[in-house]
Design goal:
The structure is a single chain. This protein has 564 residues and is mainly alpha-helical. The protein has one domain (26-556): Up-down Bundle (Cytochrome C Oxidase, Chain A), CATH 1.20.210. It is 62% helix and 1% strand. The chain has helices at residues 23-28, 33-61, 72-107, 115-123, 125-134, 153-156, 160-188, 201-232, 246-263, 266-280, 287-300, 316-344, 353-376, 378-384, 388-418, 424-450, 465-494, and strands at 547-549, 554-556. A two-stranded antiparallel sheet has the order 1-2. Strand 1 (547-549) and strand 2 form a beta hairpin. The radius of gyration is 24 Å and the shape is globular. Pathway: Energy metabolism; oxidative phosphorylation. Residues 1-20 are annotated as: Disordered. The chain crosses the membrane at residues 39-60, 80-101, 122-145, 165-189, 201-228, 248-272, 284-308, 320-342, 354-380, 392-414, 430-449, 469-491.
Length: 564
């Protein structure tokens, strides 16, 4: 995945001390945005595999009724750590990896604003990940309070709970540093002529996501710090015996947790907004409305948190407010989906793997969105709360949402990252295998939930047996598909095996296809890009009318004089 160390005819005098470090130093002391992006992506994939292993154990236990392999306590540890590791260890770092790789390339910046802080924010992930994974080996086992870490369960857990809290603090610090870096890079380092409204959609979605992260990570830190002081320092924030309130924890947690859901999907929207136009050979339909819709989602995400809490004895006025606010947030989300469909409408579409994953994303994410609307209705939610219907809903938006978009982004940009084309047949196998196995796994869970099967239970009555067996078989197949992806798609690309990628791999013979500054540099992207910033045509309506000559890293300005 790493960029080949190619200095590409640099004749600048100041390049002498810029030569890329080699060996382990290149990675440990990495300050290059491409290397750090690669490290993030590899870390998140390792976490995805471990979180997936926990999911396999969960599905193994639920393959048939009765207790087979694990006791209920260990089962709850598995569900808790599966959630924590997937959310904080897999999805979030993966999107930061995409941001590190693509944001400087898309805005014509030489690197991220704070290169050393970038290195630090990555290396913080390693001890945090080790603490989460290692919690199973601590006295009393891993935390078993659910990934939401609700009191009073968290006040009764063993020492691994403290390790978990520490890990979350470190991950939060990493997220905040990464966000500051992304915001400063996007606001201060865009190429001359790139106004905000000419900026690529992926940069827009990450700019908004970064602001969300800075706003809500401290809220999570507050909630888990109060949990920590309740556990060890005699406070009673969440202990009713001393006048505390466990429901207050839920309010604080979900005030973080609901914007967090959008933190995990907005960068995905950005990726899809690049892939769909590239393979429809058209411009993105309604660019400005996409920017405003993304901003609306971010703002509205702060006023819907208690829809996770309809069953906590909320007054009916509160239920109505959160119900209507949640339905309102479906509107800007729908705007995006209609814009993608309008982009595809009458386009000259081809269906290479990135486009397959993008179309798969739109199809499955829309299903997840509809089940979310159903859960938003308080009277229905009273029946479906904490059933497998909820599990089905959030896996449709997080696995088929975030993960599929990342796969689309990987296949889309990997020729630029590695300089080789992935194997198209294997990519398509990965797509169809993942799509079919995913739906076999999670579609039956809607019916399990409607029939009343609660989540986080290690055992269940006989009437749920058939659907659980189907879901487990689908789950094992889905897990295997990702192992296949790593060994047969990712590794050959990282080793440089495959046909050499052209500079613009997705363009048709007429030159239509993927557009943007990232396609102006050679494949693979050289270690240092845009040392002389590209200059954009001020009369252009978009970035893409500027053409950069990568062999000299100097801009050619189309249709404008150089006086500006």
């Amino acid at each position: 995945m790493s960029a080949v160390l190619d200095h590409h005819n640099h004749d600048h005098a100041h390049d002498d001390h810029h030569h890329a470090p080699t060996g382990w130093r290149r990675w440990v002391y990495a300050t290059n945005h491409k290397d750090i992006g690669t490290l993030y992506l590899l870390f998140s994939f390792a976490m995805l595999m471990f979180g997936g292993l926990l999911a396999m154990l969960i599905r193994l236990e639920l393959f048939q009724p009765g207790l087979q392999f694990v006791n209920p306590e260990l089962f709850n540890q598995l569900t808790t750590m599966h959630g924590l590791i997937m959310v904080f260890g897999a999805i979030m770092p993966a999107f930061v990896g995409f941001a590190n790789w693509m944001v400087p390339l898309q805005i014509g910046a030489p690197d991220m604003a704070f290169a050393r802080m970038n290195n630090f924010s990555f290396w913080l992930l390693i001890p945090a990940g080790l603490m989460l994974v290692g919690s199973f080996f601590m006295p009393g086992g891993a935390p078993a309070a659910g990934w939401t870490l609700y009191a009073p369960l968290t006040l009764q857990m063993g020492p691994s709970m403290d390790a978990g809290i520490f890990a979350m603090h470190i991950l939060g610090a990493s997220s905040i540093m990464g966000s500051i870096n992304i915001i400063v890079t996007i606001l201060n380092m865009r190429a001359p002529g790139m106004t905000l409204m000419k900026m690529p959609m992926f940069c827009w979605t990450w700019l908004i996501t970064a602001y969300l992260l800075i706003a809500v990570m401290p809220v999570l830190a507050g909630a888990i710090t109060m949990t920590l002081t309740d556990r060890h320092f005699g406070t009673v924030f969440f202990n009713p015996a001393g006048g505390g309130d466990p429901v207050m924890y839920q309010h604080i947690f979900w005030f973080f947790g609901h914007p967090e859901v959008y933190i995990m999907i907005l960068p995905a929207f950005g990726i899809i907004s690049h892939v769909v136009p590239a393979f429809a050979r058209k411009r993105l339909f309604g660019y400005a409305s996409m920017v405003y819709a993304t901003s609306s989602i971010a703002i509205l995400s702060f006023i819907v948190w208690a829809h996770h809490m309809f069953t906590t004895g909320m007054p009916v006025t509160g239920q109505l407010f959160f119900m209507y606010a949640t339905m309102l947030i479906a509107v800007p989300t729908a705007v995006k989906i209609f814009n993608w469909i309008a982009t595809m409408w009458q386009g000259s579409m081809t269906f290479e793997t990135p486009m397959l994953f993008a179309v798969g994303f739109i199809f499955v994410f829309t299903m997840g969105g509809f089940t979310g609307l159903i859960l938003a209705m308080a009277p229905i939610d009273l029946l479906l709360q904490d059933t497998y219907y909820v599990v089905a809903h959030f896996h449709y938006v997080l696995v088929a949402g975030s993960l599929y978009a990342m796969f689309a982004g990987f296949y889309f940009w990997v020729p630029k990252w590695t300089g080789v084309m992935y194997n198209e047949t294997r990519g398509k196998i990965h797509f169809w295998w993942s799509l079919i196995a995913f739906n076999i796994t999670f579609f039956p869970m809607h019916f399990l939930g409607l029939a009343g099967m609660p989540r986080r239970y290690a055992d269940y009555p006989m009437q749920f047996a058939d659907f659980n067996m189907i879901a487990s078989i689908g789950g094992f197949a889905f897990g295997l598909a990702q192992v296949y992806f790593f060994f047969f798609v990712v590794l050959p690309c990282m080793r440089g095996k495959g046909e050499k990628a052209p500079q613009r791999p997705w363009n048709d013979p007429d030159g239509k296809g993927a557009e943007g500054l990232e396609w102006e540099v050679p494949s693979p992207a050289p270690f240092h890009t845009f040392e002389t910033p590209p200059v954009l045509d001020p009369t252009a309506t978009r970035v893409l009318d500027a053409r950069v000559m990568p062999e000299r890293h100097e801009a050619v300005v189309l249709g404008a004089n150089h006086a500006h």
